[in-house]
Amino acid sequence: MTKKTRHKHLAVSAQRRAQEKLRRQRAVRMTLLAVTAAVVVLALGGGIVFLTGGEKPIASPTLTPPSPSAGPCEEIPMPAREAPPSLPGPFPMTIDVDATYTATLKTTCGQIKFRLDPQNAPNTVNNFVAMANAGWYNPMLFHRVENSIDIIQTGDPFCNGEAEACGSGGPGFSFPDELTGDEEYVTGTVAMANSGKDTNGSQFFIVTGKNGERLSPDYTVFGQVTKGLDVAKDIQDIPVSQSGQPLDLIWLMSVTIDES
Q1: Would you say residue 242 has pLDDT above 60?
Q2: DSSP character for 72?
Q3: Closest Cα to residue 192, out of 167, 153, 151, 220?
Q4: DSSP H or E stretch at residue 253
Q5: pLDDT at res. 168
Q6: Is 26's pLDDT higher than 70?
Q7: Alpha helices in the chain (DSSP H)
Q8: pLDDT at position 88
Q9: 57, 139, 175, 241: which could join 90 in a potential S-S bond, CB 3.0 to 4.6 Å?
C-alpha cells in the first residue's frame, strides 16, 4: 500500500468514527427526550400542568450546558447581568389600543417575532411593552419547557440556571387577568403565566404545538407569533431535566417593541 493510499484509508476510517460518534450522541439525546416525556406524563397523570410564576419547581442539579452544543442554538457563557430595574408597576395606560405593536425576542436560538393584541388584552400589552422598554427582559433564561403541553416559558429575573432559583420570580407587582373564558391556545399563542387568579407579572409562555390546546382558559392571551416559530420549536426540542428546565442554557437576550 502506497503512502497516499494509506492516508486515504486513515481519513475514511476517521470520518466513519466521527459519524458513528455523532449517531451515538443523537441516540442518547433522543433517549433522554423520551424518558423525560414519559416522566412528565406519569407525573401529570393525564392532567394539565399549571403554568405558575409563583411555585418553585422540583429541585434538580445545577444546569450546565453540554459541550459542544448539538443543535441550532448558540452556546454562550452566562451573560453579565445587573439586578433587574426597579419597576413602579402596574403601569398606567400609555399604549394606543388601536395601534399595531410587534415584539422581537432576540434569543440564543434566533429571533421570534409576535404581534401584540392591545384590543383584547390592553392592560397586559401595556405592562409587557413598559417592561420591555425598561430593559426588564435583558437578558433572562428560558427556564421552563413543557413537552406535554408544548410550551416554552421565560420572564423570571432571578433564574440563573439553578433549579431552586427558577420559577417564582417576577417584577414585584401583579396585575389582573384579561380573560373571556373562551381562550384557545393554538400554536404560536403568547400568553401570561401565573400562579392563580390575577397574579400576572413578567413570566410568559409561547405555545409551540397542538398540545397547547389541552390548557384550560386560565392564561391571558396577548400575542401571536408571526415569525420565528421554528426558533421556538428548536427551544422546545432541547432536552430538559425532571423539573422541566432545559439542559442547555437558552437565553432571551432582549425584547424590543415596534409600534405602527
Answers
A1: yes
A2: S
A3: 220
A4: strand 251-259
A5: 86
A6: no
A7: 3-44, 122-133, 229-236
A8: 83
A9: 175
Which pairing describes strands 151-154 and 101-107: parallel, antiparallel, or unpaired?
unpaired
Partners of residue 200 on adjacent β-strands = 175
Are the CB atoms for 81 and 156 separated by under 8 Å? no
116-128, pLDDT tens digit by residue? Answer: 999 999 999 999 9
* Contact assessment for residue 215 and residue 226, using Cβ atoms and an 8 Å cutoff: no
* Pairing status of strand 151-154 against strand 189-192: unpaired
How far is the C-alpha of 216 from the C-alpha of 239, rounded, in Å?
25
The three cell numbers locating residue 260:
405602527
Cell numbers placing 105: 425576542
- This prediction's pTM: 0.75
- Identify the weakest region by mean pLDDT among 115-129, 149-163, 168-182, 209-223: 149-163
Do the beta carbons of residue 249 and residue 141 sit within 8 Å?
yes
